[in-house]
């Protein structure tokens, strides 16, 4: 089994596939500016701050207790309560993995790595 692949529920899944599903799900949550460094918003953030996350490490995944454990790194917009935003991301990501991949999720850790302030 390659390091870039997870083996769960009898199938091998590329970590890139998991990252794509997680990124698309997280971006649907109101208040999320970007997932890691995967889009232009985070590229602009990285120009002005030193707290950006490289695209390849924006979503971490591993197999735990027969399901997937996910860690997603986010840039979020100022003004959204972190606890509610994280709960919404957890729910959206867990549902997307369950529906798209067909395996359970043991945990979704949300790491808020940077804050984006609206223009005034």
Automatic annotation (TrEMBL):
Top-level lineage group: Bacteria
Pfam families xref list: Asp23
Protein family membership: Belongs to the asp23 family.
Official protein name in the record: Asp23/Gls24 family envelope stress response protein
Record organism: Tractidigestivibacter scatoligenes
